Amino acid sequence: MIIEGARARIYLARARLTLIMGTVLFVCVENTFRSVLSEALFNAAAPRGWHAESAGVQAATTINPVVQELLREIGIELGPKTPRTVTPEIIARATRVVTFGCLDRCPIGAREKSEDWPIPGASGKTMAELRAIRDELRRRVAELSTRLEASTVSAKSS
Fold first, then answer.
1. What is the CATH number of the domain that holds 48?
2. How many domains are contained in the chain?
3. Lower CB count within 10 Å: N or C terminus of the chain?
4. Structural domain that includes position 50
5. What backbone phi and psi angles, to 5 degrees, belong to 8?
6. Is residue 148 part of a domain?
């Protein structure tokens, strides 16, 4: 298997298949709520050849426990997850970067392939407000998936 830069080309010798994979990186401050939700939502219905990761500019030590509950309510299991700090290497591997008000604190290279989503964090929110945030992230992730799928199709037909 060979992995190169922001797009990974995986060679399967026996089957002689090539898969181009794009990575969406979701970045928030602590990597405990918005970015984790977005990563899970994206990966649950990712366009073919795409996957998501998440990180934080100042990663906390644990994921906000309400994330698992919010995801279970819509049939998604998070699995084991630990916050991690975004690095220049993680940015370099990403094809697309989605930030939550922290682009100015991301490593160099993020700006050229980023978009910022002005979504509030979890602090001080009621469960109803947290569900509304999850649903807004779900809508935005679906819209992003549609755009990525369209760009992949147009790139293949060029």
1. 3.40.50.2300
2. 1
3. C
4. 7-136
5. -95, 130
6. no
- CB atoms closer than 10 angstroms to residue 37: 29
Q: What are phi and psi of 142, to 5 degrees?
A: -60, -40
pTM of the complete model beyond 0.90: no
Structural contact between residues 21 and 49, judged by C-beta atoms closer than 8 angstroms: yes
Residue 141 maps to a domain: no
| Cα-trace Rg, the chain | 16
What does the alpha-carbon distance between residue 119 and residue 122 come to, in Å, rounded to a whole number? Answer: 10
| Residue with the two structure tokens 């992949």 | 152
Assess if residue 155 is contained within a domain: no
Whether 50 and 21 have beta carbons less than 8 Å apart is answered as: yes
Residue-by-residue pLDDT tens, the chain, 158 positions:
444 444 444 444 444 444 558 999 999 999 999 999 999 999 999 999 999 999 999 999 999 999 999 999 999 999 899 999 999 999 999 999 999 988 888 888 888 899 999 999 999 999 999 999 999 999 999 999 999 987 765 444 44
Q: How long a stretch of residues is the chain?
A: 158
At residue 43, the 3 state secondary structure works out as helix
